[in-house]
Every structure is written in C-alpha cells, then in structure tokens.
Amino acid sequence: MDSPSVRFAQFGPSSRRIRLQTLVRLRWLAVAGQTITVLIVGVVLRFPLPFQEAAILIGALAVANLALSAWFPATHRLEPKAALALLAFDLLQMAALLFITGGLANPFAPLICVPVIIAFASQPLRHSLVLIVVALAGTTALALSPYPVPWYEGETLRIQPIMQLGVWCSIASMMMFAAFYAYRVSHEATLLADALAATELVLEREKHLSQLDGLAAAAAHELGTPLATISVVAKEMERELGGDERFREDVQLLRSQSERCRDILRRLTSLSAESEEHMRRLPLSSMIEEVLAPHRQFGIQIALIENGDRATEPVGNRNAAILYGLGNLIENAVDYARSKVTVTVAHDASRVSITIEDDGQGYSPEVLSRIGEPYMTRRPREDQRAGGLGLGLFIAKTLLERSGASIRFGNSEGSTLGARIHVEWPRSVMDVADKNDLAPSTVMPI
After folding, report:
1. How confident is the model over 1-38, as pLDDT tens digits?
2. Which of 31, 66, 146, 273 has the fewest CB atoms nearer than 10 Å to its CB?
3. pLDDT of 396-430, one tens digit each?
C-alpha cells in the first residue's frame, strides 16, 4: 500500500522531454558524418556518386539545424509531438540519402535505426511506435531502390533479392530489439529517479515539523529588537502624555500590548529550549510506541514483544526517516493482517533489530522476488496474498537503508502464515556516545 503522503509526488511525462540542444548536437554529428562519408566515397575512392542530390539532403539537415538554433533557446525542451516531428525528419532524410546510394545494399543502411532508438529512449511509447512504423516503411522503400550502390566504375554490385530480404529482416529485428531495450532501460531509470525524488520530498516533509521550533526561535530573536524599541518609546510617551486625558488610555494600551507581544516572543524563544531534549531524544521503546500508536485503531491487534532490558535500551536523536519508514511497514502489515500484527524489538551490545510479522497469507513468490522496486504492479483483486506494494514500500526501504539498516523480507516459517520483515542496525554504526553522561551510553538516531 502506498502512503497517502507520497501521492502528491507525480512526475509525469514531462520528465521525459528531450532538450532541443541535445538533438541539434546529434544532428550536427550526423551532418559531419554524412559529409565525410560522401567525400571519402566520391573523392578518395572515386566511386560514382550523386553528389548534387546528396549535398541537397545533407544541406537540408544543416539548414534545419541552423533554423532551430536561431528560433529556440538552448534550454528549450521539446514536447513529444515536436520531438516526433524532428526525429521523423531525420529518419526521412537518412532514408532518402540511403535510397539514392543503393538502398539496402548500402553498408550504412542500419543507421536508419538511430532516430528510432533515440525516440524509444526519450519519448512516450505511443509517439515512438509511430516512428518505428515510419522507419519500417522507409526500410521497405530502401529494398525497392533502383539506384546502384556506389562501386568501382564499370562494375555493378548486384544484391540478390533473397539477400535484400535478409538485410531487411536484420535491420527490422535490430530496430525492434534495440528500441525495446532502450525503452525499458530508460523507463526504469525514469521511474527510479522519480521514486528517489518522491523519497526526498517525503523526508523533507517529515522533517518540516521538527524544524518549526527553530523557526519560531529565529523569528522571536529577529522581532525582539524592534519590539524592545517600541516598548521604550511607549514608556516615554506614557511619561510625557500620561497626564493628558486625550492620550492616556491609548498610550497605556500601546504599552500593555507591546508587553504582551514581548511575553509571547519570550515563550516562543523558550519553547525550543524547553522541549528540545524531549523532542530530539527518544528511547527505543518510546520510538516504537510512537510508530505503533496511529495504527491501533483499525481493529487489528498489535502485540509488542521486547527482548531486552529497557535499562540498557538505546536512547538517541529523533530521525524522521526511521519513523516514516517503520510506520509505512507497520501500515502495510496492518492492511494485510487478518487479526494480529506482532512487533518484536531486540537490542544488545552489537545490534538493534525490529521484526514485523502479520497473520495474513504472506508474500506471493512473484512479489517476493521484486519487493522494494518502485511502482510495482498491484496484485489482482482475487489474490489476497501480500502484493499491493509499490512506491510507499520503496520509500520506506530506501529511508531505512540510508539510516544504516539492513532489511529482509520473507514469510513466517512453520505453521504460522504471514509476511515477515526484519530490520536490523549495527549498534556500532547507529550509536553515538553521550558526552553529558558520566557513564558511556548509546545514542541511536531514532
């Protein structure tokens, strides 16, 4: 189950918009490569070549590049339709150049796949599918090219139809495989980046409340000086105008209200100091109770088992990442439990561990193999085994691992069914010595 707090973090298709300058630079590379190839074939190797037609096609690509650079800023990002139009232009330009230089017999014919691969790596799927259809049509047209491939004068390099069919199949299969591979890699990278961004947003939101006391103290400090000036002026005015019936009540009201403001600011200033230790320091048992408390009202029994003496339990700084991560795991356990969730807390000199178990049907093998991935597909309605886990679980797992924890997901062993999550921190990593105590103690960033 995804936490409601992360539903606002939707990074849609805008995150896949390609920058115009990127395409422009790739096109200049294409212009340079095509020009060098034509010069080598026609001038160095002296193969007969339609120079005029090739120059027109290469020049058209260069002119289009110059126009785009002049009309749009370098930081402009293309809408999917605009990107599709430019990539289709590049594909047709490449197809036309190959068409007049031998078609599929040209050894550079596989380059027609490049715009398709770029589209699938950077554009929405529906637009990319349009381009691959155009590319396959262009590849078919190349097979029908009447122009011979540039070759030694007096000799004609003939390609048998069966060989042309083989080349067509080779280009088509390479195009589809490379396009699918580029799309999957790009899509997964985008999902991961969006999920990590959502993780950062959730963490910042969790930290926001704990920062309010500091903001209040800063505001009180900044307002203290001008308010003290107002109070001094009010006293002077009361001394000078106190005997005047016209101004006495107003001056007394001004002074009393300034004193009231000073009292309010004084309380705000002392709020952080009075509650700082209470808010920032938290025993392990108190932290667990704070995590469990919001989930005790949903008809599911939550049993807490403590394997360790509270006298030696870790006492550390409040950590919003750990609170949120554990809270999300407890929420999932409550959602999928039939009647009971068991939380086992253990600590010793070397480790701190928390185990969460529910009495549901546990994780299905498919979910267990992919658990922790962002944007997992939700389970079917008829499948009651734990599996509706996605971005919320990914965020919880990421936050806990950043705190130094190791997490193991599995199912309970023996006759007891249900999912089981084991979270463990090395105490040597988590603990910080408390210099204010005479005896060494452990401080866990809770």
Report:
1. 444 344 434 444 445 678 898 899 999 999 999 999 99
2. 146
3. 888 888 888 899 998 887 656 789 999 998 887 66
Whole-angstrom distance, CA of residue 51 vs CA of residue 303? 82
Give me the pLDDT at residue 73, please.
87
CA dihedral sign of residues 221, 226, 231, 236: positive
- Given a contact cutoff of 8 angstroms between Cβ atoms, the answer to whether 410 and 281 are in contact is no
Using left for φ > 0, alpha for ψ between -120 and 50, and beta otherwise, residue 414 falls in: left
Q: How far, in Å, CA of 185 to CA of 130, rounded?
A: 20
Closest-CA residue to 426 (of 393, 446, 397, 404): 404
**Residue 248, pLDDT score:** 77
What the block records as the tokens of 67 is 């126009």
Q: Is the pLDDT of residue 61 over 90?
A: yes
Q: What is the pLDDT of residue 415?
A: 59
pLDDT (average), residues 269-281: 53
Nearest to 111 by CA among 97, 125, 126: 97
- Res. 179: pLDDT tops 70: yes
Q: What are phi and psi of 356, to 5 degrees?
A: -115, 120
For residues 304 and 284, the answer to whether their CB atoms sit within 8 Å is no
Q: Which amino acid is at 318?
A: R
| Cα-based distances in Å from 80 to 117, 126, 131, 396 | 15, 10, 12, 33
Strands 301-307 and 340-347: parallel
